Amino acid sequence: MQRLEAALGAELLDRSIKPPRLNSLGSRVLEQARDLLQRTEILKSLTSSDAEPHGLLRIGFAHPLAEGTLTGPIRVLTEKYPKIRPRLLSELTSELFNRTALGELDVAVVLLSVGRSAPPPLLTTIIATDRAAIVQGTAGTVDGDWKSLGRAPWVLNPPGCFLRAYLIDQMSRAGFTPVIAAEIHNIHLQLAFVQSGYGVGLLPASFLARTKSRDAVEVLHPPSFDLQMCVAMVRVAQLGALEKAVELLEHGFRQLFEAAGTGIPAMKASVGAAVNRRKARRPK
After folding, report:
1. In whole angstroms, what is the distance from residue 209 CA to residue 213 CA?
2. Residue 216 contacts by C-beta under 8 Å, 6 or more apart in sequence?
3. What is the Cα–Cα distance from 118 to 101, expressed in whole angstroms?
């Protein structure tokens, strides 16, 4: 106590009585000390991975993954850990990397080309594999060859998307350039434009499976087109009390994609039906 009094430059005890007791100033110091101890415990709980998850959890989604079915794992998370407050953001993958590295996001769910990972020191966990599907509305008349696709209008992500870059490269190798009719980040709006016949689209197969949209589109298979990709969770190394919450979120997303699969086998089976529908519409 004497060392504390010396450090503060004030007497905290009334020593005129036996035993000594706190004076008025000492009582106020004690009140503040209790508050400091409580705040110290709060700080410890923020950094401990054994603590119950609580506080703000900032989650980023790449634009192709920002769709309705991902609300399921978020809902499970908040039901199990009601003290968690999710904050969601949709952005380009490169921007999600930057914001996670800067500490503005805790975790991001992104699409990556096979073999790619987030730049260090970020950690990358692959939770699913997927494929890109070239699709048109069921009333479409585009054939599954590059010449026909070169004449068709396209509904794509804006520049900066590796799916778009891969498609343009494949078409360029075949001697064609896509006619861009719409550049939209919103994947649901892309699907709506494709279904309405506005253009041909390039969408993740698992998205079509999860949203039960496979029967509403026809999948086209031009020669040598096979765009595989990975769904990954990117995070910082230390999450403290958010660790268990992110683990649960990862588990939920993994289950979601496993349940949907890539949708490729089912799509190939449905292509025949779509082709038959097109033949039935053509004049005899």
Report:
1. 6
2. 137, 138, 195
3. 10
This prediction has a pTM of: 0.74
User: Strand 107-113 to strand 55-62: parallel, antiparallel, or no bridges (unpaired)?
Assistant: parallel
CA distance linking residue 214 with residue 276, whole number of Å: 15
Contact 217, 26 (CB under 8 A): no
The Cα 29–Cα 22 span in angstroms is 10
Contacts 24+ apart (CB under 8 A), 243-246: 243/49, 243/53, 244/49, 244/52, 244/53, 244/81, 245/53, 245/57, 245/77, 245/81, 245/84, 246/57, 246/106, 246/107
| pLDDT tens string 78-129 | 999 999 999 999 999 999 999 999 999 999 999 999 999 999 999 999 999 9
All structural domains of the chain with their residue ranges: 2-47, 131-228+264-281
Q: How far is Cα 43 from Cα 54, in angstroms, rounded to an integer? A: 12
| pLDDT digits 0-9 by tens, 73-91 | 999 999 999 999 999 999 9
How many Å apart are CA 74 and CA 84, to the nearest integer? 10
Matching residue, tokens 């979120």 = 249
Fold classified for 131-228+264-281: D-Maltodextrin-Binding Protein; domain 2 (3.40.190)
Mean pLDDT throughout 168-188? Answer: 94
66: three-class secondary structure by DSSP:
coil
